[in-house]
Amino acid sequence: MGHGFGQLYKLRGIITYRLSPFEQRAFAGVISKGIPNTLRRISESIFYVVPPLAIGYLVYDQAEKEHERLMRKNPADYENDNVIKWCLGTTEQLSLGTVSTDHKIWKVSTDRPRKQK
Predict the structure, then answer these.
(1) Backbone angles phi, psi at 29, to 5 degrees
(2) What is the structure's pLDDT at 92?
(3) Cα gap 18→15, rounded to integer Å
(4) Distance, CA of 81 to CA of 89 (rounded, Å)
């Protein structure tokens, strides 16, 4: 069948050439050909890569800003807080308390520190 591993049979009409790994130059042309080739490949693909990334970043940034805006309290919703304080005759901090899941009432906050004896 053959002479050994790698030479199992003889082919006619097919010529193969080999170069010993010890004679090869692994980094031949890395600086002279590699850097210009890298720049060329980047310049060819930049128009396919950058626009989707830019659009994705702009959408993400706008969504984050909108989320921050929606998380802020609307000052117009709290314009009548002084009227409620005046009606109750108190200057203490008011907070929204719940009696049940359906009814909401205003109550005086009891989050004040107690007197030390």
Answers:
(1) 80, 15
(2) 55
(3) 10
(4) 12
**In contact, 97 and 111? CB cutoff 8 Å:** no
On whether the CB atoms of residues 84 and 106 are closer than 8 A, the answer is: yes
Beta-sheet pairing, 104-108 with 94-98: antiparallel
Cβ–Cβ under 8 Å, residues 97 and 107: yes
Residue 39 has pLDDT above 80, yes or no: yes
State which amino acid sits at residue 1: M
Write out the H or E segment, with its range, that includes residue 108: strand 104-108
Per the DSSP assignment, residues forming a β-bridge with 94 are 108
Mind listing the pLDDT tens digit for each residue in 73-108? 887 877 777 666 666 665 555 555 544 444 455 554
Helices (runs of H) and strands (runs of E) counted in the chain: 2, 2
Global pTM value: 0.45
